[in-house]
Amino acid sequence: MQKQSSRAVAKNNEPDLTPPEEIRARRIRLFIFLGVLAIGALSVALYFAAPPIGGAIKGWQSRRLSRQAFALIEQGKWSEANAKARDAYLLRPTEAESWRAIARLAFRTNQWAPALEWWKKVDDADRLTVEDRRDYIAAALAAGEVTPAAKQVQFLMSQRAPSAIDLVWAGQVASRQSDPVVALDYAQSALGDKRAKPYEILAAAALVLSVTGSDSRPYASAWKQIEDVARDPKSPASLGALVLLANEQAVPPQSAIGGNTSLSLESTPALSPTPAIQEGASAETTAAKAAVLSERSNPQPTLSAGASSQPTPATQSGDTVTLNLAATSPSNPAGRTISLREVADALENHPDAQSYHKLLALEVRTRQDPILIDQFVADAIQRFGNGDDETLAALAAWLNKIGRAAKTLEVLPETHAVQRQDLFLPYLDALGALQRWNAIKELLSSERFPIDPVLQHMYLAVAQTRLGSATGATNEWQRSLEVANTPEKLLVLAGYAEQNHANDVADRTYSEAIRLAPKNRGAYDGRLHVALASDHTAEAQTIAAEIVKAWPDDAEARNQNDYLRLLLGASGDAAEAAERQARILVAQEPFNWSARATLGLARLRLGRNADALAVFRKVRVTGTEPPGVLAVRAAILALNGYEEGARGDARNLGAEHLLPEERALITPLLP
Q1: Which residues of 498-527 are buried (b: 16+ CB within 10 A; e: fewer)?
Q2: pLDDT value of residue 299
Q3: What is the reported pTM?
Q4: Containing H/E element for 71?
Q5: How far apart are CA 255 and CA 220, in angstroms?
Q6: How many CB atoms are closer than 10 A to CB 662?
Q7: How far is CA 121 from the centre of its chain?
Q8: How far apart (Å, rounded) are the C-alpha atoms in residues 556 and 575?
Q9: What is the torsion angle, in degrees rounded to the nearest 10, for the CA atoms of residue 540, residue 545, residue 550 and residue 553?
């Protein structure tokens, strides 16, 4: 053992004779080996970690671009905002912030259907802010979809202290659901909210006007509040209030009878929820305007193709046109504390007034003093005829509106009109009002026009129709349909075809819009309206059933489908199911006449005539109900022995448009 230990010690004491080069080589090989192991491990880690890291980076960049888009939207820089929102979406299509940016941009540029679809995506991702929900409601109401709007209102009302504008939106939805009592309650709550801003006060007051009678105290109080807002030029809502008063979108309150606080759906039509979008408008301001104003503060002129509100007779020259302006009622009737002349003065002198507002003031003066129309026209041309293109476009649209199409052609020569679309459209409008269809045809057949090919061909179709060329009109409608490659363009085309009584073209175009965008509610509603206008009840019922299938939560759609089925003769189990649905809807919306018609007709089909009569016992006819509803009511009255009243109703409906099945209900009552 000692010998072995001695040898081991001796061996350890021997010098290391390994060359230094070998030692370095060993170390290098060790480093390389360890480096390869590290690189391999790092590669594996990067392989699994790279997608999440890359996605996170893209998500951050997408959100950054979305924030930039939001800022540009608030500044009214639509093109730049569109570019940022598009880039944000393309960078990461699953980023909800990019969806929000696209939805906000679509809403602020009045593209209701696209905005609604994008808001739905944001909602599904549970990323809606309170401001988003208000825009969502406005887009839904503008697109005619009450159900999603009601869902968002329900959320806003669940907050601890809903804001005044949220109360206004709740009232708007209630009004759309034919429940003026609830709508009035929300509107008055908004008016009593000390936090309410001027635009919100204006919105709530306008809502009160739309759901109450002009002889009621709430109506008079709301009218006074609108006038108070209009009187204060420092109020940010004063210009909107003046526009509302100038357009006479509501009548002044009448002398109230006692303590009348009754509601009446006949008083004034509910104001449109179309937003009046202006640059830099805040979300709350936009929402308030959306609830109040029925036209934009700077509306774009559209070609009427001779169907303007006051067309120029073909037998007269443009300079001898007579304006159909009847003398108005006294400038300060009962209930009005600010006269229309004062409204016109305030519009002209308002610090924020633009050319549109000043022209509206002149329009008010023409209604007050129609004998001075030529003087007002000359004044307008002198003041605005040499303005910039936007001012000239507003002047041209105003001249067309008051029936001075020939003056439009004087202030807007063709060489100038062909430079911009907003000038070209009122120029075409003037030609149509003067019945100069050959000139329109020649101009649009050339290459000198700044409008989309869809507009070109659909206007040519109308011109060909007016010139008596049915084949030419058919060809132009077909060409316009071929170049309309987006749902938005198709809806414009379909609406114009429907306006000009080309219902077959409108139906085909709406169908194509549905093919491109299966959830486009506006296209479905358009098809339904065309079918009803064409007296195709069975086809309308088929479309209504498709709407119910696509939007099963829409109570109004279900009611219309049931009503059409009953008209077509549904009975038995189908009638019982319709009766149950209509009874629920009437309980929820007592002033919903369409639901009452369905309920009454269902009971009629089930042979329960007395129960059908009970549907209409406690509601007062105002004269604004749909004719079909009154036809159902007349038939029920007759079957219950009230033949004299039923015959009177039937005679009053003689000139109204009724579906064949509705007219069949009252035919036995007619002489």
Answers
A1: bebebbebbbbbbbbbbeebeebbbbbbbb
A2: 33
A3: 0.68
A4: helix 20-74
A5: 9
A6: 27
A7: 19
A8: 17
A9: 110
Measure the CA–CA gap between 23 and 25, rounded to whole angstroms. 5
Give CA separation, 358 vs 228, 262, 328, 564, in Å: 21, 37, 20, 48
**Tokens standing for residue 668:** 């036995």
| Three-state DSSP string of 135-157 | HHHHHHHHCCCHHHHHHHHHHHH
Which pLDDT value is given to residue 487?
Answer: 84
36 versus 98: the higher-pLDDT residue is 98
Q: Which residues contact 121 (CB under 8 A, 6 or more apart)?
A: 96, 99, 103
Give 277-303 pLDDT, tens digit per residue.
233 344 444 444 444 433 333 333 333
CB atoms within 10 A of CB 207: 30
Considering only CA atoms, which of 78, 90, 126, 120 is closest in space to residue 103?
Answer: 120
Domain 555-669, CATH 1.25.40 — does that match? yes
Residues composing the chain: 671
Where does CATH 1.25.40 sit in the chain? 555-669
Confidence (pLDDT) at 261 = 32
435: left (phi over 0), alpha (psi -120 to 50) or beta: left
Whether the Cβ atoms of residue 207 and residue 187 lie closer than 8 Å to each other: yes
- How many Cβ atoms from other residues are within 10 Å of residue 592's Cβ? 20
Name, in order, each residue with C-beta under 8 angstroms of 578's C-beta and a sequence gap of 6 or more. Answer: 562, 563, 565, 566, 570, 598, 602
Whose tokens are 């790092």? That residue is 42
The token pair at 113 is: 């259907």
Q: 55-59, 155-159, 437-441, 547-551: which range is least confident on average? A: 55-59
Q: What is the mean pLDDT of residues 164-190?
A: 87
373-384 and 389-401 helices, crossing angle to 10°? 170
Q: Give the Cα separation of 655 and 671 in Å (integer).
A: 14
Q: Which residue has the tokens 């509803």?
A: 629
Residue-wise burial string across 541-576, b where 16 or more C-beta atoms lie within 10 A, e elsewhere: bebbbbbbeebeebbbbbbbbbbbbbbeebeeeebe
What's the pLDDT band for 561 if we cut at 50, 70, 90?
A: very high
Report DSSP state, residue 321.
P
Of 186, 241, 193, 237, the C-alpha closest to 208 is 186
Residue with tokens 């009302």: 157
Q: Locate all alpha helices (DSSP H) within 402-452, ordered by sequence.
A: 405-411, 414-417, 421-433, 437-445
**Residue type at 472 in one-letter notation:** G
- DSSP secondary structure string, 82-105? HHHHHHHHHH-TT-HHHHHHHHHH
